[in-house]
């Protein structure tokens, strides 16, 4: 996959936006996953590639929050264990879904995530 200057800028910009959004509220994949697919990466490869960035950014955010005493360590274990289980099940399911099916599933998921982030249900009086 050849990457010209415009595509490189798109990747960097989507990565910066995703990092910011992930640290504040989560859901930065709404930027990175479409960017990878737009560059011609198959949906399954883009999804797997995106996960590497999500894990690395999440670890960096946890470290930063912990360093600034903004992390309740006691709350981490009850959150991390189901998350790991869900990630394992989700990755197993995603790996067997045919690419022509996975692409619209990812699109629908990204659209739903965007609506949830923008509308913030539960915070609207």
Could you characterize what this model shows?
- With 125 residues, the protein is an all-alpha fold.
- The chain has one domain.
- Helix content is 80%, strand content 0%.
- The chain is built from 5 helices and no strands.
- The longest helix has 25 residues, at 43-67.
- The chain is globular.
- The mean pLDDT is 87.
The number of helical segments is 5
Strand content: under 5%
Evaluate the radius of gyration. Answer: 16 Å
User: Biggest sheet: strands, sense, closure?
Assistant: none
Total DSSP E strands: 0
* Order of H and E elements: HHHHH
Compute the average pLDDT. 87
End-to-end C-alpha gap: 48 Å
Question: What class would the helix/strand composition place it in?
Answer: mainly alpha
Uncertain spans: none
Q: What is the helix fraction of residues, given as a range? A: over 70%
Oligomer: single chain
How many domains? The number is 1
Basic shape: globular
Gist of the model:
It contains 5 helices and no strands. It has helices at residues 5-24, 29-38, 43-67, 73-96, 99-119.
Fold topology:
Blueprint (H helix, E strand, L loop, with lengths): L4 H20 L4 H10 L4 H25 L5 H24 L2 H21 L6
Helix pairs in contact: 1-2, 2-3
